[in-house]
Amino acid sequence: MESPAQKITVQTEIQAPVEKVWEMFSGPEHITQWNAASDDWHSPHAENDLRPGGSFKTLMAARDGSYSFDFAGEYVAVEEHRLIEYNLGDGRNVKLEFTSGDGSTKLVETFDPERTNPIEMQQNGWQSILDNFKKYVESH
């Protein structure tokens, strides 16, 4: 049995330079286009102040209007084109590492799990969002 303290990691390789990946990951006008784990969800609003001490808030909502919540937190560390680390409102930590390759970018996201849903469900949900991000970047 996995401990709730165990971190979860998801990752992807995006066929785009790190500068483009960084901009599309952090720009609110882009976040609203890719930040959903499935087609029946969307993010109609996003705010982002990408700097240590800055905050972010993305409204995540079911398309049928049945449920929504703010995904929000505060940035702990930001190293342009390399690292984004933040803490969520419930204290969980998330770290994203951007590694530039030959015209591609590897993105690795490591986060503390929440205690409500199974680890596998959380990993699959966050991976789905990362997969949507990859598709968005590579098609724009």
Which descriptors apply to this entry?
single chain; 140 residues; alpha+beta; Alpha-D-Glucose-1,6-Bisphosphate, Chain A, domain 4; seven-stranded antiparallel beta sheet; 7 strands; globular
**How are the strands of the biggest sheet laid out side by side?**
1-7-6-5-4-3-2
Helix-strand pattern, N to C? EHHEEEEEEH
Secondary-structure class: alpha+beta
Count of the domains: 1
Quaternary class: single chain
Name given to the CATH homologous superfamily: START domain
| CATH class annotation | Alpha Beta
> Could you estimate the helical fraction of the residues in percent?
25-40%
Mean pLDDT: 95
- At CATH level 2, the architecture is 2-Layer Sandwich
Biggest β-sheet, characterized? 7 strands, antiparallel
Q: Measure the end-to-end span.
A: 41 Å
Please tell me about this protein's structure.
This protein has about 140 residues and is an alpha+beta fold. It is built from 3 helices and 7 strands, in the order βααββββββα. The protein has helices at about 20-25, 30-35, 120-140; strands spanning about 10-15, 40-50, 55-60, 70-80, 85-90, 95-100, 105-110. It has a 7-stranded antiparallel β-sheet with strand order 1-7-6-5-4-3-2. α1 packs across α2 (about 30-35). The longest helix has 21 residues, at about 120-140.
Entry summary:
The chain is an alpha+beta fold and 140 residues long. It has one domain: START domain (Alpha-D-Glucose-1,6-Bisphosphate, Chain A, domain 4). 26% of the residues lie in helices and 40% in strands.
